[in-house]
Amino acid sequence: MELQKFSYDNRMTRNFAIATIVWGVVGLLAGLLIALQIFIPAMNFGLEFTTFGRTRPVHTNAVIFAFVGNAIFTAVYYSLQRLLKTRMYSETLGKIHFWGWQAIIVAAAVTLLSGFTVGKEYAELEWPIDIAITLIWVVFGWNMFGTILQRRTSHIYVSIWFYIATWVTVAVLHIFNSLAVPVSFMKSYTLYAGVQDALVQWWYGHNAVAFFLTTPFLGMMYYFVPKISGRPVYSYKLSIVHFWSLIFLYIWAGPHHLLYSSLPDWLQALGTTFSVMLIAPSWGGMINGLLTLRGAWDKVRRDPILKMFVVGITAYGMATFEGPMLSFKTVNAISHFTDWTIGHVHIGALGWNGMLTFGMIYWLVPRLYNTKLYSVKLANIHFWLATLAIVFYAVPLYIGGITQALMWKQFTPDGFLKYPNFLETVTQLIPMYTIRAFGGALYVAGFLILVFNMVKTIQAGSFVAEEEAQAPALYSESEMKTQSETWHRFLERKPIRFLIFATIAILIGGIVEVIPTYLIKSNIPTITSVKPYTPLELQGRDIYVKEGCYNCHSQMVRPFRSETERYGEYSKAGESVYDHPFQFGSKRTGPDLAREGVKTGKLYKPNAWHYNHFIDPQKMNQASIMPKYPWLAKKEIDIQSTPAKIRTMKILGVPYPDNYEQQAIVDLKAQADSIAKDLGANGIQTDSNREIIALIAYIQRLGVDISNKPVKK
Amino acid sequence: MSVVFVLVFAAIIMAGAFLVAFIWSVKNGQYEDTYTPSVRMLFDDPPVKIAEGGEQRAEGETSKEDIASEERNPKHETRNS
C-alpha cells in the first residue's frame, strides 16, 4: 500500500492548551473567592458584581466550560490526528472553533457578573450566548467528523468513540435544556415550568457531568495513559464494552437530583435505578485505566505525570461509587441540600478532571515545544499539593454536610426541633468552611506552580507547528487511481456528513415548532388556588433569579417531619406551574424559602424585616453569612419591561387575563405603593420604584397560594 | 409530566444514533480485532528519515527505535508485506 507523507497540525492543540492554563487560573481563583465568601460576608465587597450569587455561576462555568472545555479540545485536537493518522480536517474551522469558544467564555463571564442569567445551574447563560454555543459546537463537530472521515486507519480507537458520544449528547442536551422564549435581548423565560423544568434541567445537569466531565476524559485516559506509560490498555475489549454500556445507561440518571422533591415518585425511582446500574460501566473504566499500569508501577513511582493519572482515575472510581450511593433515597434524605454534594462533586472535579488535565499538560506541552519539562521536581510538588488539597477540600465538607443534615433532623424528646434556628446549623460549619478554603488555596497554589513550570518550558523550547508523519493510505492504490473513483469515494462520504447535519437541522426545527404548544397544555394548573404572579412579583422574581438567590436558598420543602416542622407544608408539583424557570435550588446554605410568605408560617417575617435584612443581614443576625444587598434599595425596577414580560408569560401559557399587558404597569405601581406605605409605617422611608420592593413582594408571595381556599365556581 | 415525552423523544434520538453507530461498528468489523488497536496506538509513525536520526527522538519513546531497527533489518521485512 502506498505510504503517504503528511504532517500533524499542532497549532490548535497549542492554543487550546494555553487557553486551558489561562482559564484554569481564572476558574480556580473564582472558586477560592467563593470558598471565602461563603463564611466571610465581607469578601463579597458589597458590590453586586462580586457577590456570591453571581460569582458562583462564574466559578462553575469557568471551570466546566472554560478550563475543562479547553482541556477536552486540547486532547481531541492532539489525539484525533495521531489516532487516525491524518491531519485535522480544516484549519479554518479549527480557528473558528478556538476563537469562538474563547469569545463565548468572555461573554459568559461578563454577562454572569452583570446579572444576566437564566437561573438554571450550569446552564445560566442567556439565549444569544446559547445560540453561539450551539454554532461553535457544530463547527467543532464538523471539524471532528471531517477528520474521522478522512482517516488513514480503518479502526476507530476507543478514545474517538468517547469524543463522538460527547459531541452528540452535549449537542442534544444543550438544545433541549436551553429552549426559552426571549423577552428581550439578554432576557428570556424557560420554555418549561416548575417541576417539568426541574426534570429537564437535571436531565441536562447530570448528563453534562456525564458527557462533558466524564466521557471526554475517559477518551483522554484511554489515549494518554497508554502513551505515557508505554503500555497498551489493560483490556481493549473491556473498553469497548464499558463505552457502549456507559452511554446507553447515563441518560436517565438525572432525576436522582430531585429525590423527595415534587417530581413524581416513579421518575425518582427511575433515576435511582439507572444511577445504581451506572456503577458497572463506570468502574469498568476505572479498573481498565488503573490496570493498564500493571507492571509499570516503578514508572508511576518516578513520574509525577503518571501519579497524577493514578490519583485522577482513583478519584473517578471513588466519585462513581459515591454517586450511586447518594442516589439511594435513604442516603439522599441526609445528603441532599448539604455540603456533602459539593464535596462529592469536587472529588470528581479536582481529582478526575483536574489531575488528568494537569497530567496531560505536563506531558503535552514539552512535546509541542520539542523540549523537556522545565522541572520534574516542581511537577512533583504540584502533584502532592493537589492531592493534599483534595483531602483538605473534601473531608471537611463530608463532615460538615452530615453534621448539618443531622442537626436539621434532630428532635428533642418532647418532639420539638432541637435546632429550630437555621443559623445555628450554619455557624457550626464555619470551621469546616475554613479548612475547605485552605484546601482550595493549596489547589490554586499547585496550579500556579504548573503555570510557572509551563512558562519556563515554553521559553526553553521552540514550537513545532507541523509535525511530520507518514502512514499508508486507507484505500488501496487501485481505488485511488482514477479520478472517477476518487470522486465516488467523496460521494460515499458525503451522505454521512449530510445526514448528520440534516438530522440536527430537523431536530431543531421540530423542537421549536412542536414543543411549546404541546407543553402549554400540560401546564394547566392542578391546584385551583395557585395563581400567576402579579407584575410586581414577577419583576421581583426576576431580581431573585438575577441575584442568584437559588445558589444558596432552596424552594422545595421535602415531605419529612423535620422539614414540615421547620418550614411548613411540603411542596406540591401544582404550586410551581407558573415558575419559568423553576427555582427549587440544590443547596441550603441559607434556609428554604418555599413557605417564606405564609403569614401563619414559622418563617414569616414582616416587610420591614426583609428590607433591613437585605440591606444588612448582619445587623439582623450577627452570625449570618448572607451578603449585603444595599444596591437593591437604590436601583429602580425596570417597569417598562413589564408588558413584554407578561406577554412572554402568556405565550408560555400562563393564564393572565386578555390584554393584561396594558393593565400590568398600573397594578405594579399600586402594589409597590402599598408595600412602600407599609414600610413607611414601620419607619422606613423608600421610593416605591426600587428593586427591593419588588423582591419583597415576591418573597411574601412564596408558598402562599396553597393555603388560600379555592374559589368555588 | 408530559415533558417526560419530550425527554424520551430526545433520549430515543440519541440512543438511536448510538445504536446505528454500534451496528455500523460491528458490521464494519471494528471489533473483530480487540487487541492490536491497543498496541498500534502506541506508535506514532514519524517519516523514516527522522527515525533514523536516533538522537532526535524524544525521551521514553523507545517504540520508535523498534520500528526503525525493524525497518533496517531485512529479517522482519515480511511484517510489512
Query: Care to count the β-strands of chain A?
Result: 4
Strand order in space, largest sheet of chain A? 1-4
Q: Approximately what portion of the residues of chain B adopt beta-strand conformation?
A: under 5%
Number of helices of chain B: 4
CATH architectural group of the largest domain in chain A: Up-down Bundle
User: Which runs of chain A of at least 5 residues are low in confidence (pLDDT < 50)?
Assistant: 476-485
Tally of structural domains of chain B: 2
Envelope shape of chain A:
globular
- Report how far the terminal alpha carbons of chain A are from each other: 84 Å
What's the CATH C level of the largest domain in chain A?
A: Mainly Alpha
Whole-number mean pLDDT of chain B = 68
Q: Tell me the fraction of residues in β-strands of chain A, as a range.
A: under 5%
Any overview of this molecule?
The complex is a heterodimer of chains A (713) and B (81). Chain A has 713 residues and is mainly alpha-helical. Chain A is 64% helix and 3% strand. Chain A has helices at residues 11-37, 52-84, 91-113, 127-149, 158-178, 194-229, 236-250, 265-277, 279-291, 297-302, 304-326, 329-335, 339-368, 376-409, 422-427, 430-460, 477-481, 483-522, 535-546, 561-566, 607-615, 617-620, 642-651, 660-681, 691-699; strands at residues 3-9, 180-184, 187-190, 466-472. In chain A, the strands form two sheets. A two-stranded antiparallel ribbon of chain A has the order 1-4. Chain B has 81 residues and is mainly alpha-helical. Chain B folds into two domains: 1-31; 33-75, no CATH class. Chain B is built from four helices and no strands. Chain B has helices at residues 3-27, 36-40, 48-52, 62-72. The longest helix of chain B is centred in the N-terminal third of the chain and has 25 residues, at 3-27. The chains are: A mainly alpha (713), B mainly alpha (81). At the A-B interface, helix 5, helix 6, helix 7, strand 4 and helix 18 of A face helix 1 and helix 2 of B.
